[in-house]
Each structure stands twice: as C-alpha cells, then as structure tokens.
Amino acid sequence: MSFLTLATPAAARRLFLGQSGLMLSGAAIALLAGNDALAAKTPDGVATDIQILNTALGAELEAIAAYQLGAESKLLQKPVLDLAVTFQGHHKEHADVLAKTVQKLGGKPVLAKAKYDFPVEQLKSQADVLKFAAKLEQGAVSAYLGAVPLFGNRDLAKAAASILGDEAMHWAVLRQALGEVPVPSAFMA
Amino acid sequence: MKLLAAAMVSALAVTAAPARAADAARGEQLYARCVACHALASDRVGPRHCGLLGRRAGSVPGFSYSDGMKNSRLVWDEKTLDRFVARPMAVVPGTSMTYDGVPDAKDRADLIAYLRKAGAGPECAGR
Questions:
Q1: Number of A–B residue contacts, CB under 8 Å
Q2: Tell me, what's the ipTM?
Q3: Where are the domains of chain A?
Q4: Closest residue of B to A115, CA-based?
Q5: Based on CB atoms within 10 Å of each CB, which residue in B2, B58, B73, B96 is the most buried?
C-alpha cells in the first residue's frame, strides 16, 4: 500500500514511521532548547555554533517558503498537498527551535528574506514541484551532514543529526511520490 | 639488469599516466549536495554559482556575505575553489558556509568541472 493513497497525512506519516521503525520525538527540541545543552565551551566555539545554526536556519526558512510556493501553486493534488503542508510544518518547527537556540547562545537569528528567488517558471506540474522539493530536501540532508561534525557542542550536533533524519525521510517520501526508488543508496554524502 | 630496466619502465609508466580528466557529468550529480543553499542562477542561502570562476569572493551585488568572505581577498579559480571546498571554514574563517567540506580530490575536481561547464551553459547566460 502506498502511503500517498491514504486519506490523511497523519495516517501516511504513521504508516511510514511504522514501516521504517523510526520515530520522531521532541528529543531534538529538548536538546536544542535545554539550557544544559548550551553550556559554552569556548567563546570561539559558541560563535561557530551560532553561525552553523544560523546557516541552517536560513535554509529552513527558505524551505518553508518553497513549500508555501508549492502549496499555493495549485499544482499539488491531495494527498500530496497534505504531505507538503506536513513537511512545511516540520521545517517551521526546525526553524523555530533553531532561532530560539541562537538567541539562547547570545546570537541574533537570521530572518526570512522578504522575497525568495525560486525557479517558478520551471514548475509546471505536480511532478515538477515534487522534484524541486526533493532536491531541496536532498541538499538539506547533505548540508546537515556537513554541519554535524563542526559543532563545538556535541549536544547541538546530536540535535542537528535528529533534524537530518527528518529531512532524509522527507526526501525518501518525495522520491516515492515521484515513483523513484525512495532510498537510492546506503550512504549519504 | 633487465629486471631493473623493466622496473624503471614500469615506474615511468606509472609516473607518466595521464591524470584523470574531471568529469562534469559526475560533478552535476555531486552538486546535489549543494542545492540546499545554492543555485546556479539565483542567490539563495548562498550566492549564485553562475559567473563563479573568475569572480572575486564576496562580490555578488546585493548578496549578504560574512565579513570573513568579504575580506578573504580570494578570486575563485580551480585552485582556490579546490582549497575552499575541501575545508571551507579553515580556508575562510567566519564563512557562513558552515560545511565540513568535500574531502575527496576527485569529487572536488568533478564538481568544479561542472561549475565551469554550467557557467558557460544556457542557464547562466546573462547571469
């Protein structure tokens, strides 16, 4: 049974999570938001962590805008539309917790741009939107993968890895929706 | 003696083996790692890649760069890109490109070959 044929995104998500044996929880949020996880190691380390979090925040804010574009394009049909809105909700949660963490570390969270430059002229069908979203999600997995080893605070690295897992699931689901092999390889780079 | 000569010929053959040509098509696949933040023709979390080779670092008009990048005094060519992509934060301290880097030299060469090819392609025309 395809989870894309289920009536609600929640049901699709439950099925997907159940089948994959994975479960997202509030652990990442607790890790990011907990004061004990934010104990400063060195001023340089904290500054670097703030920069990493802010770069991730910028990408999350852009992903939110990209899903908004997809949702408003009238190109997405249910249940794909519901799925896109659900994924956008995850990115909103990521952005929220990243911004709060930057603030707790004494930094200034980046803000959403007034305007994003997306390739709107190339989005002519549901498949185009899904491909665009899948590319962004794949890139996000690589971006978090490249960021995780850089954190000075290992708790932040762990929390970022939790977000990475969520982005990887988005990518797999979008590939499945496109009729592609959902998980094309054993490793990500 | 014959053995020595054979060994020398063999060593020379290894030394003279042509370097593997960078593979832009493979580089395009590797570019998938970059697209959370970059696009060829538009500024995103990172600046556009059209026109990258030959450009002074931190110089795309209207893009908000880190001070580290603005002050890096780098000009992007194969060499500087290779160094930067290998270890962005070590080469440009303070860069917003908080990415651990592409450790494999072959991957970097292919990626740069793709950027060069794409920069001359239709998507980058006039960008």
A1: 72
A2: 0.83
A3: 29-177
A4: B44
A5: B96
A15-59 confidence digits (pLDDT tens) = 433 333 333 344 444 556 555 555 445 667 899 999 999 999 999
Question: B87: exposed, middle or buried (C-beta count within 10 Å: 0-12, 13-18, 19+)?
Answer: middle
Q: pTM of the entire structure?
A: 0.83
Would you call B32 and A48 a contact, using CB atoms and an 8 Å cutoff?
no
Instruction: Determine which of A44, A46, A51, A151 to mutate to test the interface with B (most B C-beta atoms within 10 Å).
Output: A51
Opening angle at CA B116, ends B114 and B118, nearest 5: 65
* Residue A68: both structure tokens together: 């908004």
DSSP classification of residue B58? T
Question: Could you tell me if A15 and A3 are in contact, meaning their C-beta atoms sit under 8 angstroms apart?
Answer: yes
Q: Can you say how many angstroms the Cα of residue A3 is from the centroid of all Cα atoms in its chain?
A: 20
**A129 phi and psi angles, rounded to 5 deg:** -65, -45
CA distance B36 to chain A (A): 4
- CATH 1.20.1740.10: does it fit domain B23-124? no
Domain A29-177 belongs in CATH node 3.40.50.720: no
Which of the 8 DSSP states describes residue B75? B
Residue whose structure tokens are 């949020």: A29
CB atoms within 10 A of CB B114: 24
